[in-house]
Specification:
4 domains; 20 strands; single chain; elongated; conserved putative lor/sdh protein from methanococcus maripaludis s2 fold
């Protein structure tokens, strides 16, 4: 009996020891909480932008063409350089045109001499008519011939003017200051025969324009902003300039231009053109903004983004763009609660500013949101959070997109 009791207690002790060891092993085998980076959501006043992709163009785009026929003699500029107004660009063989001028001068001199003779006939016949020495018909004929010769003199003068104009066209000069492109023809080429020959193109690039199209909804936002600005200006006894003149802002709203490398053009621009209608096929309206370009950094034909603030959202709740995940059309964020456990919470996303996202509902300011390591967590999991300032993730300097897509 005593032996049986001893065996029972020994077995129980062994089972307890084994259970304790398994429990200790389980504790040692449990993985540590995953490390995630979190940032507190913040509230700020955020500008809301209208943004579009556009293409740059000179505010003056000029085709320089040959206006007379002849052989090109000289090209007097460096392709791709800046030229001044009146600078000689090309010359065309002028010898035929000088000959035309000389011929026209001779014709004019001959017409003038003939007019003098006709005038003398009229002066001689006038007193003879009174004495019946010359018939009235002869006198009237002389007067008519004098008038006809006056018309001939006028035609000879016009021909001379025309020949001089054609001679002037043999020297092709820059019509304005600007950036000149590649030459389309070279010395020795016959130009101007049968049709106009484009020699090169000239662009005035200070200011530089950006032409773009925006959706009708964005245009309405901008138009309402202008109406509000116009009402405020009227109340203050002022008036807004109309869009349409280069350098004149439509409502004082500055435009920004973001270049292909992501940099923002140093000089803010202003709206100078709004098309008369919305394109019914695309639902967009064409607009144009002008930007100072004193260094000539921006050239025609570049692609650029343009943007303008149309409103300010007060006390917007912001999180990093990487914090928001979307599945089946539902956006959500992973919130780390006070006990360091994860709560996956659906949210309503509004606009995007830079790399930050405005949360319309579902999140309050000051809550900790996972920004890195979301793929390692699930609801209810305990984590080890590492705080990261939100400003290290993104800034509100306007370099990002307008809306979360």
């Amino acid at each position: 009996m005593i032996l049986s009791q001893r065996l029972f207690f020994a077995s129980a002790l062994s089972l307890f020891a084994a259970f304790a060891c398994n429990k200790e092993d389980a504790k040692r085998a449990a993985p540590p909480p995953p490390v995630v980076k979190v940032a507190e959501s913040v509230t700020r006043d955020v500008p809301i932008y209208v943004e579009a992709i556009g293409q740059t163009r000179g505010n003056e785009e000029i085709e320089i063409s040959a206006r007379v026929e002849g052989f090109l003699e000289t090209m007097s500029f460096k392709e791709g350089s800046f030229v001044k107004k009146g600078q000689v660009l090309y010359t065309i063989d002028s010898r035929p045109f000088r000959a035309n001028v000389a011929q026209a001068q001779a014709n004019l001199a001959q017409s003038d001499a003939e007019l003098v003779r006709k005038h003398q006939d009229v002066a001689r016949y006038a007193p003879l008519v009174a004495k019946n020495a010359v018939s009235v018909q002869e006198y009237e004929t002389a007067v008519a011939q004098e008038k006809a010769q006056q018309s001939a003199v006028a035609a000879a003068k016009a021909a001379l003017d025309r020949s001089r104009i054609d001679l002037g066209y043999t020297t092709v000069s820059a019509p304005t200051d600007g950036l000149i492109g590649v030459t389309e023809v070279h010395p020795g080429t016959l130009v101007g025969r049968g049709q106009t020959t484009v020699l090169t193109r000239l662009s005035k690039i200070d200011p530089i324009d950006v032409r773009f199209a925006i959706p009708e909804a964005d245009y309405l936002k901008y138009a309402r902003r202008r109406e509000a600005a116009q009402a405020a200006a009227t109340d203050a006894g002022a008036a807004l300039p109309d869009a349409g003149a280069h350098g004149g802002a439509a409502d004082g709203t500055p435009f920004q231009m973001i270049l292909a490398d992501g940099s923002t053009h140093a000089y803010p621009g202003s709206l100078v053109f709004v098309d008369r209608n919305v394109d019914p096929q695309t639902g967009t309206i064409r607009m144009e903004a002008a930007f100072p370009n004193p260094t000539g950094l921006v050239r025609p034909g570049q692609y650029a983004r343009v943007r303008a603030s149309v409103s300010v959202k007060k006390d917007a709740v912001l999180v990093g763009q990487r914090s928001v995940t979307e599945a089946q059309g539902v956006s959500s964020v992973a919130v780390v609660k006070a006990d360091d456990t994860v709560e996956v919470r659906p949210v309503k996303v509004a606009d995007r500013v830079g790399d930050l996202v405005i949360i319309e509902s579902g999140l309050k300011a000051g809550e900790r949101v996972i920004v890195e390591g979301i793929q390692k967590v699930k609801a209810g999991l305990k984590v080890k959070p590492e705080a990261v300032p939100l400003d290290e993730l993104a800034s509100l300097d306007g370099k990002g997109d307008k809306k979360a897509q």
